[in-house]
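Quick question, first post here. What does this chain look like in 3D?
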Amino acid sequence: MKCIVRPYFGEGALRFAAKFRWKMKYGGNMRGFFLVTLPRFGNDLLEIYSFRMLNKRYYRLYPPLIVGVAKGYDEAVNTARRIVEETWRSTGGFDVKGYIMSVRGPEASE
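> Answer (accepted):
Ran it through. Tokens below.
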């Protein structure tokens, strides 16, 4: 999996940050967790995936870039909203990828 250096964490996922980093490095599943990623294709701002989905063969071969972690789908939506609002306030535009790469650091493969 690929993740930015300092991903966004939802309130419920924040206390599981160390566990998330361990699971990223050594593999495994985190039931009930969702990941906010940069879009792979098209003009979307962000995409939301279940952590379990990334165990599928396709996502192991072509991993999305993870920018946020949330516990539950609703928290994932709120985390994505927070990222887009922060991008808008800081840049006045919607270049989410450019903003994240400049502020949160480049990607780090694990």
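The first strand starts at residue 2 and ends at 9.
Residues 78 and 97 are 18 Å apart (CA to CA).
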